[in-house]
Amino acid sequence: MRRRLLTSTLLVAGIAVLLLGVPLGVVVSRLIVDDAAQQLRAEATRLVGEVEYARIQETPLDPQQLEQKYPDRYIQIFERGNPPKATVVGTPPPSGQQMTEDAESDSGIFVRVSRDRAQVEQDVYARLLLIVALAVAALAVAVGLAIVQTRRLTLPLRDLAMIAERLGSGDARPSKHRYGIPELDRVAQVLDRSATRISDLLTREREFATDASHQLRTPLTGLTMRLEEIVAASNHPEVVREEGEAAIVQAERLTAVIDELLAAARRQRHSQAEPTSIDQVLVQQVTEWDPVFRGVGRRLVLEGTRDLKALATTGGFGQVIATLLENSLRHGGGTVTVTTTSGDNYVVTEVTDEGPGIDDEIAPKIFDRNVSGGGGTGLGLTLARALAAADGGRLELVRRRPATFAVFLRPADATGRNRVVSGPA
């Protein structure tokens, strides 16, 4: 822990020094060189003015005075005339080490000022050395601070890591350890409170799931038996028979859901997708929902390819279709069409209606939790997409107007192949 913290601090400090020091060194070097060139250019321009003034005053140039005024400079002055004049002041810099700037006037005066580049480079090296010294000092300070902090934080962090690991393994007992550091003490307090809450929540959830499952299974079983007796005893009223069969289906579905809840509470859920008849699930859903649609003057139609099989769970796929049909009933309009097609990599079931469709503002987040365009709970499509993903498929909005939802599932023969569809987990 100490070594990692020290290494990471030193690495961060080194990166910061490099990110700041290297650009700073480049900028400083360029500034010094540019400043030297600009100074030469200003001196050449000023000399042009002085030579023109001397010509106007008809006074000769004094090389000694120019050498005193511009020390360490090599100056060449050329005056166009009859005869032309040339004045040289100073010692020329070594070959290849010259910095030269020129200036020229309209009257034919040309001035060239040169200096030794080595002097400028010495100035650059001095500034770079200062930057390197500051960088080393910053790294030394960072290492010192890192050593102090690692000594102070290592033991409390190790203790907190052990507490968190114990909490994650299911031992939700508060430790009540404190370290004299406000931030770490705050973390320890939060872990203690979290341990207490997790323990209480786990206890209440397990008890609720187990008790609710056992208490609900008994009345649902009795309800199923009574409905079966009603269906068996009804000889003429077809409506009673139809409604009774639908009620049985609902009761059996509730029983299956409760079984899943009970298995989840006992951590024994092993639900996996298996080859499922698409027609069987869709016919069941259409039979169940058709009376409701007819009751409001609408039609429910099943079209497309028959005898398709896909990898799914009957309960999960049925709940997805039921959610889509319920949404079409509440928010759509006209005839609702359920269409099945198949391809090489998927089996798709589309549910579409003739309603106004989905607003463009809501469409991108239609599957988000608590998002609803018609005053609903905003949970139906979210749960439906999760159920489709649990079966290895996906639920998508393929068209906004009219609203068309599609459920993509893996073909029944794709058990040994790579998964070809994906969805949110």
Automatic annotation (TrEMBL):
GO terms for molecular function: ATP binding. It is found in: Cell membrane. Pfam families: DraK_HK_N, HATPase_c, HisKA. Its main location: membrane. The chain crosses the membrane at residues 124-148. Residues 211-413 form the Histidine kinase domain. Keywords: ATP-binding, Cell membrane, Hydrolase, Kinase, Magnesium, Manganese, Membrane, Nucleotide-binding, Phosphoprotein, Protein phosphatase, Stress response, Transferase, Transmembrane, Transmembrane helix, Two-component regulatory system, Virulence. Its cofactor is Mn(2+); Mg(2+). Its EC number is 2.7.13.3. It is a multi-pass membrane protein. CDD domains: HisKA. It catalyses: ATP + protein L-histidine = ADP + protein N-phospho-L-histidine. This is Signal transduction histidine-protein kinase/phosphatase MprB. The lineage of its organism: Bacteria, Bacillati, Actinomycetota, Actinomycetes, Streptosporangiales.
